From TrEMBL:
It is found in: Cell membrane; Mitochondrion outer membrane. GO terms for cellular component: mitochondrial outer membrane; plasma membrane. One of its GO terms (molecular function) is antiporter activity. It is a multi-pass membrane protein. It holds the Pfam family Choline_transpo. Keywords: Antiport, Cell membrane, Glycoprotein, Membrane, Mitochondrion, Mitochondrion outer membrane, Phosphoprotein, Transmembrane, Transmembrane helix, Transport. This is Choline transporter-like protein. InterPro entries: Choline_transptr-like. Choline transporter. The keyword Cell membrane applies. Belongs to the CTL (choline transporter-like) family. The chain crosses the membrane at residues 29-50, 231-251, 258-276, 314-335, 356-379, 451-478, 499-521, 599-622, 634-661. The keyword Ligase does not apply. It comes from Gadus morhua (Atlantic cod).
Amino acid sequence: MKTDRQNGEARKFDANFKGPIHNRGCTDVLCCILFILFLFGYFAVGLLAWSQGDPRKVIYPTDSRGQFCGQAGTPMEKKPLLFYFNILKCASPLVLLELQCPTTQICVETCPKEHLTLLTAKLSLDRKKQDYYRSYCKEGTNFTKMSAPDILSQGLCPAMLIPSQAFTHRCLPALGTLKGVVVVGNETSLADNAGDQVNATQLLDAAKKSNLVVEARQVAMRIFEDYTVSWYWILLGLVIAMVVSFVFIVLLRFLAGVMIWVMIILVILVIGYGIFHCYWEFASLKGVAGADVTIKDLGLQTDFSIYLQIRQTWLAFMIILAIVEVVIILLLIFLRKRILIAIALIKEASRAVGHVMSSLFYPLLTFCLLAMVIAYWAVTAVFLSTSNEQVYKVFNISAGEFTRNSCVPESFSPNNFSAGTLDTECRFAFYGGETLYHKYLIVLQFYNLFLFFWCANFVTALGQVTLAGAFASYYWAFKKPEHIPAYPIFASLGRALRFHTGSLAFGSLILSLVQIVRVLLEYLDHKLKGAQNRCAKFILSCMKCCFWCLEKFIKFINRNAYIMIAIYGKSFCPSAKDAFFLLMRNVIRVAVLDKVTDFLLFLGKLLIVGIVGICSFFFFSGRIKAVEETAPSLNYYWVPILTLVVGSYLIAHGFFSVYAMCVDTLFLCFCEDLERNDGTAERPYLMSNNLLGILKKSNDTTKTVD
């Protein structure tokens, strides 16, 4: 047939085929060698980064000479805070956090607590006041003998001190409000040396984005407090989610059909209750003062419970849940016939998981390996980003900016750069370097990210091919469980590592290349956001969309290719081709049956998340009177609820991912079974009687498979 030529030839009957082939050889050896070489390079980059990096640059602030404030064993050990001579020049929070503020910075013991100008301190007869001001000047400054103009011209002391408070080891203005007016140290304005008034609002403008960070820190501290008093309840909730997921999987083993329909009904009821609750909250806020304020008018608030006190929030929740409810009901109506076949496939998957119970614990190995990969990448990235050296530049004091000239602080002479004036100084500018290592630092970061993608995808691929081999052994066993090999998970894992490391590395490499291109597109989009025109923005958006689709397609092909590798032991490309043509020959079943099964499994995860989420909502919000005193007192009760929702979804996903891989493997085996066999005594179908009945097929033999 024409279709056969386009989509490859159908599988032919082979009397010797009994499932995953044991006599196989190593595949994609070249890619295996390449992967090992890249891993050695990855370890070399890590060792190089660990020898050159200095995480203290992240922990400790750095003064204008590149010294770490508060570092033990240094002269700055007792000076943990960074003080800015002129905070008004630090308008951007990025400037503050990256230590690029164009003003002198020194390490101090404490932040200033009172307003004081240099001229006032010089004219004061109070020795303590002079010593106090001197503590915020550069070391070695002859405060008593030098005049105020000389001190300021040489940048030895700040022009004035303003009340400040420490935040992230930096002294920032102690801004506040008094009767709705911005104040600093209870003063609305401060006088400088020239007698000019510096309004507190100016200081607010200079540090306003830093205050956003302060507010974020306050929210973070409240969230941290909530975790400290509710962590054991969260842990208990995650254990309950794990138990519910496990019980759900066990019940699927024996009552798959009933459980699927119960699950569908419960999901509809849970979402329906969510709609009712949102409407009840929306109606109860009618006429309440301030409840009609819009979210746009409310703006960003650090106390998120405020949003639950306005009607528009509950209206938005109600609309979203109603849309989800309608979509699910419509899908169930139009796919009702395919749902019966999907349920039969899930029943078969339940039997497979029941015979290979160790598969439920395999995701723990995948999780541990992924945690190791993520930890290695994160540590290496931190060490690489902190492996730059201190770069000093000539700073023009009057212009308030760095020049292009580099300098050495110990041998710096202003005469060499400013025609004999004292208007320049050698100041720490940033971390960088001129060595070969520093020139290619961005390349090493790119290499670190690329190998992270490659290793993470390899670990995922190893899990998929291991589970696929185990479940394929179940399907092709004529008598179950007698013909199922002992320890199928370990046998499949051994075959994957011994023979197919290269194929797994090949598939992971293709996916990693697409992912790294997506990262580069996001990087370009970020860099060109301010300069690009509409045409460039459109092209970039199209490219991002295309590569997103390409990544999804490659993941789909890889997943099915790994199943064929686990069964036949071929290399990646032939396996991907065989899987693709097999799916194309059964394109209707793929488009409907396989996706319906995925949809039903997603409803299972949604049900578990919904049960845990609703129970945690009533518990932590104090809606249940019986446990109201038991529930912890929280700043934001949504913190443990959101944590439990995300955690329970990940736990449910871990259990159901085994089911999903089982279904995909059985689906490919099911398609091959239809091509290889015809139901005669010599070529009986190996699928269950339930599937045979739904497909209106039968085995003309007394040896049928239950």
